[in-house]
Amino acid sequence: EAATGKARWHGADKKGQACVVVRPRLHNPSSTDATGLMRYGAFMMEQGVRLTEANGCESVCVIYDRLGMTRKNVDLGQMRALLGMVQDCYPERLGDVYVLEANALYHILYGMVKPFLTERTKSKIHLLDGVPSLLAHFE
Predict the structure, then answer these.
(1) How far apart (Å, rounded) are the C-alpha atoms in residues 10 and 15?
(2) Assign residue 99 a region: left if phi > 0, alpha if psi is -120 to 50, beta otherwise?
(3) DSSP annotation string for 74-94
């Protein structure tokens, strides 16, 4: 999983949260099993915890870069399992989530999921049009 480059730790945001850049366009569900993805997710979160604590913070941020992503990169079962693991095992570690290239379809899907999210979780999710919008959160 690490060799794909689909997720890399890269610096921190203005709050000092270690930041992972996730590029789903590099994910190939047919070459990934759920167990391997879960192990990789736990490995990345443990790395992030160490990095963010070194910055004096407790939470990590995620840049979810959707640029170039297509339907072939999506596996809802794997995504659900990974999100469940993060929610159950690292509930207080997730800080801000910056979603890049949030197109109209993404806004519609997010609107369907949003009623099931807590206010605290909703406040962490930022749907952005592109990199210029993202730069306001970084130095």
Answers:
(1) 14
(2) beta
(3) --HHHHHHHHHHHHHH-TTTE
Query: How far is Cα 48 from Cα 86, in angstroms, rounded to an integer?
Result: 12
pLDDT in tens, the chain (139 residues): 766 778 999 999 999 999 999 998 888 888 878 888 889 889 999 999 999 999 999 999 999 998 888 778 777 777 777 777 887 888 789 899 999 988 887 788 778 878 877 787 888 889 988 888 899 888 7
Q: Which residues contact 106 (CB under 8 A, 6 or more apart)?
A: 66, 99, 127
Single-letter code of the amino acid located at 95: G
DSSP 55: T
CB-CB contact of 66 with 102 (8 Å): yes
Which pTM was predicted?
Answer: 0.84
What is the enclosing helix (H) or strand (E) of 10? strand 7-12
